[in-house]
Amino acid sequence: MTELLSFEKSRQNAHGPRLPEADVESPGPDDVLPRELLRAQPPGLPRLSEPEIMRHYSRLASMNYSISEQFYPLGSCTMKYNPVANEAAAALPGFTDLHPYQDEETVQGALSLMWRLEQALCAVVGVDRVTLQPAAGAHGEWTALRMIQAFHRSRGEARTEVLVPDSAHGTNPASAALSGFRVVEVRSGPDGRISLADLESKLSPRVAALMLTNPNTLGLFEREILDVAEIVHATGAMLYYDGANLNAFMGICRPGDMGFDAVHMNLHKTFTTPHGGGGPGAGPVGVKADLVPFLPTPTVERMNGQLKLDFKRPKSIGRVRSFYGNFGMLVRAYTYIVAMGGDGLTQASLDAVLGANYLRHEVEGLLEMPHEGPCMHEFVASARNLAPRGIKALDVAKGLLERDFYAPTIYFPLVVPEAIMVEPTETESKATLDAFAAAIKEIVTQADESPETLHEAPHGLPVGRLDEVATARHINAYLQGQSEDPILRWKKAP
Ligand SMILES: *Cc1c(COP(=O)(O)O)cnc(C)c1O
After folding, report:
1. 58 CA → ligand 1 middle, Å
2. What pLDDT tens digit does each residue of the chain (494 aa) get?
3. SS3 for 174?
4. Does 382 sit in the ligand 1 pocket, CB within 6 Å?
């Protein structure tokens, strides 16, 4: 299973597909760009015929690993099956042939879909309004923090700090820093949950918000969330909910009821729109009434039986994405919600939690479980028990790839050494979970009996064990102009 680069396969005299003549008048190149900015030579792109290109990409695709082929237990990412019905809905010409500059009267269907999706998401997370614009969870975090910042400023308060637990996803401190806040870390207690004492010691009138995930990234529910909300609100700060773990409790509890003021949702995680190289994401943000005036423009409003886009929102933080967000993803998520219904979503969460606890039980005793169960929709194990054999979480992950499973998330969250974070999702059968547990068992036996073979895994895949240190060094040297192109260099190696 090897495939040359398209550049290596390029043939000087190959012809690509013939394109029809342009049917619009185009100005000559001189009218568009000044002559000194134009290329003297054509770009060095590979030249291949259409069948050659097709085969090249089909062969590369066959080496890939995807949720439509295999189990993908990537913790914190909710890699569930993406229903085909979503794709059929998103491909309807009524959606695909729209132009974002069309008059509102001619796009009532699309606006209605956005309106209904907003209503559904409001109901799931318990907020007053939702913006559909952000393109991902991280983008949603940033959007919400800008709204929270604008809220505090509108009251004449300059709050400069954002509190983030030590188990948080890296995007949380990054979004806070990008919004100009100072990030202050809050420690977890030995039970893996936020330490109330540490939280209290870090609260002050300088704090704008606490960012929290519940269940947290260890898959544990923050049982003291109502107390957390009370002490945070008492200081005038807001509560931000990182909704990446929403798959744990749809229809069972709601961040809005727990006291959160703003929530992002990852449609590409919880609501089955493709991700992980499968397409753009969508990270809608829901807010409570206090933050509604600050929502990005435009919002979809209902006026006299018509749906309208409202651009006149004086306190708005403005647009955060061109046009109206990744609209095709909104169609897919809406299709999934309608197909599932409220009861279906609740059942999905119940099954996700059941699957995670079943797998946790099967793996317990093979890997260390640093925190007491039960867990929610995912669990974090540790490969620390294999350290005496020289085996690390990375080796376990490679051993899983060898056995045709995608590797779980490793080395995250940072509070667990040698972390292996497993999220099976509700779309997997018991047979798949059993096969995964059996693979872990085999790897642990291999670690005992012949650890050196595990160090070399995977053997049977298109790409074997990468030398990550050497790769990073070569790329850095290349970027600093101290070495030739790392791909060419690698290709020349014997
Ligand atoms: C995935 C994830 C994010 C970021 O979401 P993206 O859509 O990848 O930007 C944030 N927090 C947690 C806990 C996550 O799992």
Report:
1. 30
2. 688 999 899 998 998 878 888 777 776 666 778 888 888 888 888 999 999 999 999 999 888 888 888 999 999 999 999 999 999 999 999 999 999 999 999 999 999 999 999 999 999 999 999 999 999 999 999 999 999 999 999 999 999 999 999 999 999 999 999 999 999 999 999 999 999 999 999 999 999 999 999 999 999 999 999 999 999 999 999 999 999 999 999 999 999 999 999 999 999 999 999 987 656 899 999 999 999 999 999 999 999 999 999 999 999 999 999 999 999 999 999 999 999 999 999 999 999 999 999 999 999 999 999 999 999 999 999 999 999 999 999 999 999 999 999 999 999 999 999 999 999 999 999 999 999 999 999 999 999 999 999 999 999 888 888 887 887 777 777 777 777 665 555 555 44
3. helix
4. no
- What is the chain's alpha carbon radius of gyration, rounded to the nearest angstrom? 25
Q: How far is the CA of 400 from the centre of ligand 1 (A)?
A: 24
Nearest ligand 1 atom to alpha carbon 140: 9
* 330-349 burial code (b ≥16 CB/10 A, e <16): bbbbbbbbeebeeeebbebb
Give this prediction's pTM. 0.90
Determine whether 161 is exposed, middle or buried from the number of CB atoms within 10 Å of its CB (0-12, 13-18, 19+). buried
Q: Which CATH class is domain 85-339?
A: alpha beta
Closest C-alpha among 170, 243, 237, 244 to residue 208: 237
Task: Quote the ligand 1 centre to 145 CA distance (angstroms).
Answer: 15
Give the residue extent of every domain in the chain: 6-63, 85-339
Is it true that the peptide bond before 34 is cis, omega within 30 degrees of 0? no
138 lines ligand 1 (CB under 6 A): yes
With the most atoms of ligand 1 within 8 angstroms of its CB, the residue from 169, 245, 326 to mutate is 169
Is the CB of residue 134 below 6 angstroms from any atom belonging to ligand 1? no
Q: Is the CB of 426 under 6 A from ligand 1?
A: no
Evaluate: CB of 131 within 6 angstroms of ligand 1: no
CB atoms within 10 A of CB 174: 15
Write the single-letter amino acid at 354. Answer: L
Cβ of residue 329 lying under 6 Å from some atom of ligand 1? no
Q: Is 136 a pocket residue for ligand 1 (Cβ < 6 Å)?
A: yes
